[in-house]
Amino acid sequence: MKNIYAIGVGLIGGSLALDIKTHRPDAVIHGVSRKDATLTTALELGLIDQKATLDDIENADLVIISIPVDATVKLLPTILDKIPDAGLVVDAGSTKADICKVVETHPKRRNFLAMHPIAGTEHSGPTAAVAGLFKGKTNIVCEVEKTAFKLQEPALKLFTDIGMRMRYMNPVEHDRHIAYMSHLSHISSFMLGKTVIDKEKNERDIFDMAGSGFASTVRLAKSSPEMWTPIFEQNKTNVIETLEEYINNLTHFKELMKNDDFGAIYDEMKNTNHIKDILNGII
């Protein structure tokens, strides 16, 4: 896989490009973006070797799509139209059901591998790219059986070499689980930030009194709305279900407070401490 095209060279696409350049130094990374300024920045940062257009992917061995999921749904069929028979297209979107569905009957479905590397930060754009972002991280691969084995094998080897752990899942289950493990935490962070901004009108008070707990909890509220709004839209049903459960837990906690039942509050928090055992070594 020498001719690699990165459609989207922000945090995910740019970080993948950096790691690919480290593990496959003979590869040529071509950047594709709607904005030429983005590609110029990516070139200056050494994320890509050349600028390219969608028409150029007829020469691709591998195409990596790292753009908002609504744009992926619109663009993916066209990309598959252009990919050569020996080329593979992968996407890194945080939702999978709609993306898989849009190409389920495409003549080149065998040339597509749906995946979601569980990695990232609250930052965006080419300047957010970092080497080693995916080391030790899980890469969810969906509908692997629909991708030609001879095409998927070298790609999965590449992602393994970068440091990813592979896990296989169907796209519907992926979207249900990720609503709890990722999408809910982003909504919680955004709404915590909104609550504080609405209540604390003095920005200096927010700055001076924000401790590490608040900073870590609200960190995800710095994330890109352009990326996250389409994610919430595509996974609407699952997100609403998780929100209902979360709101029920918040309401229950409030009722315990109103009833001065701090013994029950202690028990709730003590039981929830088990999360540290589950996530030991991750956070």
TrEMBL record:
One of its GO terms (biological process) is tyrosine biosynthetic process. Residues 2-283 form the Prephenate/arogenate dehydrogenase domain. It is an enzyme of class 1 (oxidoreductase). It comes from the Bacteria. Keywords: Oxidoreductase. One of its GO terms (molecular function) is prephenate dehydrogenase (NAD+) activity. NCBIfam families: PRK08507.1. This is Prephenate dehydrogenase. It comes from Hyunsoonleella aquatilis.
